[in-house]
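May I ask for a sample protein chain and its fold as tokens?
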Amino acid sequence: MLKTSVIGSYAVPSWLISSTEAMSRGEYGPLDVQETLDDAVDMALRDQEDAGIDIVSDGEMRRFGFFTAGFYGHLDGLQALEPLRKLGSGGHDQRERYEAVEPFSAPNGLGLVDEFLYASTRTERPLKVTCPGPYTLAGRIQTGGIYADRMAVAARFAEIINAELKAVVKAGATLIQLDEPSAAVHKNVPDKYVELFNQSVEGVEAEIGLHLCFGNYMGRPVAHRTYAPLFPRILNIAADEIHLEFANREMAELELAGEIAASGRNVAAGVIDVKNYFIEPPEMVADRIRQVLQHVPANQLILAPDCGFSETARWAARKKLHALVRGTHLVRNELSL
């Protein structure tokens, strides 16, 4: 009851940033790279376990970003384009762009299997495998050539993701989460997002989660922060659990968590604000959990941060994980009285 979890990404330590820069200059050999990334995964798992998190991830330490080189680097048929803007405050118009010069493919998969196989040897706790959803992955590939529009690109990604998820389940994974922030950003066609998601997980024999958020690049959202236009059609999704962010929205739209629970699914509720350097006291976290419990039965509720910690400094991420666990324990103790 009231398990704690993470979304996927974890705070990048300063030494990994320096190492990544050295790798890009060709200063690391293959074994140096492997050792460095293994150490980064160990660090992410250790911080989660030290805090007492029940369901952990590898921190997405091998990906060098949410889905950029970590996924597009596995694809054939893409050509990198220059960012639209290179100077000034960070924003999405400074991000990488790609052009499909031929139908793209992932001949050696997307890397999830190797990520899982290593991380599973480093923890005895339930291990969540995360993957961007097809519509989100499609967002950085320009259209109008081989692929007419973003939906066409996403349909191809759904095929690739489906094969990857089946491979990682065959390797032993039992918990899988697709991250689809773009569905909450562009809310206009929820039926299409459901179709793409269901194609991505068809035949995947695992517990499946969907993470919906409003973006977190540079620690900033990129959308009008309401989930309401996605409902009720998003409930046709083939997922066992749906995660929504609440903490940074002052717990708005909790009634939607109730709709998820009423559909028989688990709710993963974001009760830690990753876009804020204010460290929530455990009592504040507990109060947020009590608010969610007014809509979701305790046996269907999982507590998590709003989003991943990749845009958060490690010192803050660690404190926020501890606050999440301590606040959850306060409410657990109340419920067991």
